[in-house]
Amino acid sequence: MELVLSTENEFLEGRHALEEAVEAGVPVQVVYASDAAIADKRCSKLLARLRSDGIAIERATKRELEERSSRGAHQGIVAQVAPYSYASLEDLVQRAAGKQNALIIACDHVTDAGNFGAIVRSAEVVGACGVLIQNKRSARVNMASYKTSAGAVAHLPIALEANLATNLERLKDEGFWIVGASEHAQSLLWDAPLSGRIVLVMGSEGSGLSKLTLKICDLLVKLPQVGRVESLNVAQATTALAYEWMRQCNVTKS
């Protein structure tokens, strides 16, 4: 089964994200560390482990670290990792094989890397089979998504496919119900049947679900709102809906 590789090396910033990546076997190529990070007790153990695995550790100034940082939250460490290996839809289908309760979260042109990373984190926490994204006009795995997912992108398969509609139809054939999140839905998440084999489709930050996606969905759901401010962003809404799926399925950690 062919995996899709991102075309460029990525820089991963922050100690926690690096620890998660190392635990998951993400191929780190070189680590740039400040003198303070090298002297830190917790960091020194991590760096020693990386050295023992043959990974180069290079001292770097604050300026050099900031030049490689996209979020300014490097905590004295920036690591260059090999291009991310994307999964395929078939990989997600295989992970769901034989499961009565299975969740896949599909992103319909979610473009913000922070939101994308948070969505992957929620998906991993509730035990989803994976996340499905499109190869155009969608956020991908990069340094920002490693950081905002707290390393979850290293633990959960993310399928990169050309056409969301085609793949949603394929998932229907595999026994999944397609549930779209929309503020215009009639059903609240608490009243909707969300247990079982579900694909939860989350729309873009600006325009929500596309017209074609809306037509494919078997059910639309929304979150209740009594306050005056705007509705939750796509990442927060995903968390609420994913946990409702988990609750209805009575999913617990084994």
Structural description of this entry:
Strands 9-8-7-12-10-13-11 form a 7-stranded parallel beta sheet, sandwiched between helices. The model is unreliable at 1-8 (pLDDT under 50). It has 254 residues and is of the alpha/beta class. It has 2 domains: 4-81, Ribosomal protein L30/S12 (60s Ribosomal Protein L30, Chain: A, 2-Layer Sandwich); 85-249, Alpha/beta knot. It has 10 helices and 13 strands. α6 (113-126) packs parallel to α10.
Helix/strand layout:
Elements (H helix, E strand, L loop, with lengths): L3 E2 L4 E4 L1 H9 L4 E6 L1 H5 L1 H12 L3 E4 L2 H7 L8 E5 L3 E2 L2 H8 L5 E7 L4 H14 L3 E5 L8 H6 L9 E4 L2 H10 L3 E5 L5 E2 L8 E7 L7 H6 L2 E4 L11 H16 L5
Parallel strand pairs: 3-4, 7-8, 7-12, 8-9, 10-12, 10-13, 11-13
Antiparallel strand pairs: 1-6, 2-5, 3-5
Overall, the morphology is elongated
Question: In the CATH classification, which architecture of the largest domain applies?
Answer: 3-Layer(aba) Sandwich
Rg over C-alpha atoms, rounded to the nearest angstrom: 19 Å
Note the run of SSEs as H and E.
Answer: EEHEHHEHEEHEHEHEHEEEHEH
Unreliably modeled segments: 1-8
CATH hierarchy class name of the largest domain: Alpha Beta
Key terms:
60s Ribosomal Protein L30, Chain: A; alpha/beta; Alpha/beta knot; 4-stranded mixed beta sheet; 2 domains; 254 residues; 37% helix; 7-stranded parallel beta sheet
